[in-house]
Amino acid sequence: MARPGSDPDRKPPLGEPGRYVVRGNDWSALDHVRPAQPPTVSVVVPHYRAQAQLDLVLAGLAAQTHPATRLQVVVADDGSPSPPVVGSGVVVVRQEDRGFRAAAARNLGARAADGDVLLFVDGDTVPEPTYVEELAALPALVPDALVTGRRRHADLAGWTPERLLAWFAGGPAPAELTEPAWLRSAGSLLDADDRSYRFVISAVMGTTRALFDEVGGFDETFDGYGGEDWELAHRLLTAGAVLAHRERAVAWHDGPDWGLRGDDPVAARREKNAETRSLTRLLPDPAARGVGGWWRHPDVVARLAPGADVDATVLGVRSLLAAGLDLQVWGVDPELLDGDPRVHAGEPPAPVLARCRTQVTQSGPLLWSSGEVARLADLVRPGGVGRVLGQVEGVAVEIAATRALRRCARSGVDMSTLFGEARVDMSASAPGPHPDLAHHLPQL
């Protein structure tokens, strides 16, 4: 297999040397590039009542090849009975103990950070000496980068910082535990798809401070183990993040992966189900949600300009809702459709736009052929174009990927350059004034 960057057909990134805007998700030309000056980096370490493990993590961070003068370490304590003990220069921030609140703790640490690049490493996950240098390189070059490192597993029970540093210097290594196959299967993520957010784990994650702040950080409604990193990764990808897996950025988790711990299977299932419920309410992934149901955050946002009369508008809304997608409509009085919760007046709110994958804009109502809206939405999935445009009997239609809209707006680079766009024929018709609802509605 050719290493990333070896494909002669891949185009180089855009932008001035030192700061780049990437086409699609193709960061391959930057795989071995390093910034001219090491970036300022803040590493946020969530912690709760595990001083021995924290000692190892801090020892690993103190041994980084990244210049110490451009590296800040922030320990975010999730309400331990006693403050963590840290060395000189390490920042400690604390929140009260109100249960498991890792998402809130990471946000607390991020607010205290002053680096241009934000890295996260868990309080039981020890970074190798090149971890910061490897994980921070792409965010230092690409303002939109979201990078996940490689988490390996070892039994570090009873280890001391001195023993750890001896290992990093070439001494005896700990007993390595099984590395989860699902993480090893990530590859470089150059061909990331809509579900690649599942390869991002906050135990070994990095992005730019600007992008993290733009999306609002972790969702603090997560108050149990797991899920908050996938939700954030999905929101970052929807915001146009460039996703990368840096296998050279290695950190060692003390103990086996959650799925290999051999805990009580019933308790483990309950914990996993709680994570799934938390994710489905916020994360509009059809493969995770299944079909049916009403969701506060839909997958597809449709903006519809009302038609010349009520009947045409009602028919146009019903045609969109019949598309078989997790779709909601904005711009129409919901009372026209008996208060259907999927129909809204005005503009879609920011939290909805932050999570929807696809946006449909119509200058008037249309009667869509069966499966046509879903077909057009598929054209703007990762690997396709960023936007498709069409016109049906005077009604202008735009269907765009939110990730493409957001990155283009942030960078100032046009859609055709960054993602591509296409004018396509669309199978639909305009209902015209005063359509026969009794005739059309049964056919939707």
UniProtKB/TrEMBL annotation:
<keyword id="KW-0808">Transferase</keyword>
<dbReference type="InterPro" id="IPR027791">
    <property type="entry name" value="Galactosyl_T_C"/>
</dbReference>
<dbReference type="Pfam" id="PF02709">
    <property type="entry name" value="Glyco_transf_7C"/>
</dbReference>
<protein>
    <submittedName>
        <fullName>Glycosyltransferase</fullName>
        <ecNumber>2.4.-.-</ecNumber>
    </submittedName>
</protein>
<dbReference type="InterPro" id="IPR029044">
    <property type="entry name" value="Nucleotide-diphossugar_trans"/>
</dbReference>
<keyword id="KW-0328">Glycosyltransferase</keyword>
<dbReference type="GO" id="GO:0016757">
    <property type="term" value="F:glycosyltransferase activity"/>
</dbReference>
<dbReference type="Pfam" id="PF00535">
    <property type="entry name" value="Glycos_transf_2"/>
</dbReference>
<comment type="similarity">
    <text>Belongs to the glycosyltransferase 2 family.</text>
</comment>
<comment type="pathway">
    <text>Cell wall biogenesis; cell wall polysaccharide biosynthesis.</text>
</comment>
<feature type="domain" description="Glycosyltransferase 2-like">
    <location>
        <begin position="42"/>
        <end position="160"/>
    </location>
</feature>
<dbReference type="InterPro" id="IPR001173">
    <property type="entry name" value="Glyco_trans_2-like"/>
</dbReference>
<feature type="domain" description="Galactosyltransferase C-terminal">
    <location>
        <begin position="197"/>
        <end position="241"/>
    </location>
</feature>
